[in-house]
Write a structure and sequence with these properties.
Main location: cytoplasm
Shape: rod-shaped
Strand content: under 5%
Radius of gyration: 62 Å
Subcellular location: Cytoplasm
GO cellular component, one term: cytoplasm
Keywords: Cytoplasm
Helix content: over 70%
Largest sheet: none
Structural class: mainly alpha
Number of strands: 0
Protein name: Tektin-2-like
Order of helices and strands: HHHHH
Number of helices: 5
Length: 426
């Protein structure tokens, strides 16, 4: 519609229009200023947000990189610990194998219980060593599954740490890409189901929990290794102590038994010597008995001959008295000699029994000596020189006869003046 007041030139209308124009101009200027200020603030906000984002990204990348370094270092240590535990496991198998060899050697060569039911300090030491080896074998066989479980636990922990470190590397790669580009051209604005994000505190707690779990596993592995090494050192020291004790006991018993064999040999030689002396004395006594009996017959013959005298001449004279005295003495000496023979025979029997007992004792001791020599030779791998101590049986015909005891004077029968004195057969 045409503005009518413009035809008549009314100033009032123009003033009003001018007022409106000025007012609109002022609003335009104010709007321009506001717009420029808004654009400037927007640009400042973009730059500030960019700076803050870069700073946050840098701090975040630093945190993730530090955790990545911690996890990678922890992974390296866990890997080294797994290798060490594997070495300890193999060492345990070797220890068990050596204990089996020692038990086999102790069973086959040391022969525990070989002298049962007789038990002395040597047999007790051998049995204690065998019991100790069996206990240690059972102990180390129990430790091996525990070490295998610890190894599996460490491998599982290593895989967790590897997975977490790989996730840290991927996160750093994404953050670095975001740092370098800051472009959203390739952003696919599809509707995807958003996953609930973890808070930084929970993320740090999870990382710290994984680190603590890894450190605890390492601590447990270190403690287990120390226990295994302590057990191995303890086994070595105790086995050496038991072995030294057994070797010392065997050597002492071997030395004592050799001395006993020497003593038994001397006792046997003395007994054989006494037996030979008694044989000589028995032979002498038997000859004396025979001579006494001959003398007794002679005296009886003389008495019988004197009875042939005339009746008036048969008197109890000194000759008869002497003959009867001699006859009584001969009877007494005959009885004494026979009693002496019985005593000699009894002594001979006792000596023979003693020699038999000495031979039995010597045979038993020789068995123990042979066993101890075999044990020492098997345990020390050195040749044991055998002693010359042997119990020899009594020779039937000795090559060199020992000098026998002889009396200072010979007891010879008294000879009559007339040896051809006639005897009357009764």
């Amino acid at each position: 519609m045409f503005f009518q007041d413009a035809l008549y030139g009314f100033t009032e209308t123009l003033s009003k229009v001018r007022y409106i124009s000025d007012k609109l101009n002022a609003k335009v200027v104010e709007q321009v200023n506001d717009t420029q200020e808004l654009v400037m603030l927007n640009n400042f906000m973009h730059e500030s947000d960019e700076y803050l984002l870069k700073k946050c990204l840098q701090e975040r990348m630093s945190d993730v990189a530090s955790w990545r370094w911690v996890l990678q270092d922890l992974e390296k240590r866990v890997d080294e610990t797994i290798a060490a535990i594997h070495h300890e496991s193999e060492a345990l198998h070797v220890v068990v194998q050596r204990i089996n060899e020692e038990i086999h050697a102790s069973t086959n060569f040391a022969k525990p219980g070989a002298l049962n039911p007789m038990i002395d300090f040597v047999e007790e030491a051998v049995m204690q060593e065998l019991i100790f080896l069996r206990q240690q074998k059972k102990r180390f066989e129990t430790v091996i599954p525990q070490v295998e479980k610890l190894k599996a636990k460490l491998e599982k922990m290593k895989s967790r740490i590897q997975k977490e470190a790989l996730q840290k590397c991927e996160a750093i790669s994404v953050d670095e890409a975001c740092w370098n580009t800051f472009k959203c051209d390739n952003y696919d604005n599809k509707k995807t189901k958003k996953k609930k994000s973890l808070s930084v505190v929970r993320w740090e707690r999870r990382c710290a929990k994984l680190k603590d779990a890894g450190i605890n596993a390492l601590r447990l592995a270190v403690v287990t290794r120390q226990k295994i090494r302590a057990a191995r050192v303890d086994l070595s020291i105790a086995a050496q102590a038991y072995g030294a004790r057994v070797d010392s006991a065997i050597r002492r018993r071997l030395h004592a038994n050799i001395i006993k064999l020497q003593d038994l040999e001397w006792q046997r030689h003395e007994a054989v010597r006494d037996l030979k002396s008694l044989d000589i004395e028995l032979e002498t006594t038997e000859k004396s008995v025979l001579n006494t009996m001959d003398r007794q017959k002679l005296v009886e013959g003389r008495l019988n001959e004197r009875r042939l005298r005339p009746t008036k001449e048969q008197t109890a004279d000194q000759v008869t008295y002497q003959l009867r005295m001699e006859q009584g003495k001969l009877r007494i000496f005959t009885n004494e000699l026979r009693n002496n023979i019985d005593r000699i025979v009894s002594l001979q029997n006792r000596l023979k029994d003693t020699i038999t007992q000495i031979d039995c004792y010597a045979e038993d001791i020789m068995h123990v000596v042979k066993l101890d020599r075999q044990r020492l030779q098997a345990r020390t791998d050195e040749a044991i020189t055998e002693s010359n101590v042997t119990i020899t049986p009594e020779p039937s015909e000795p090559v060199e006869q020992e000098p026998q005891r002889q009396m200072d004077f010979a007891l010879e029968p008294i000879q009559e003046e007339d040896e051809s004195y006639p005897l009357i057969d009764l």
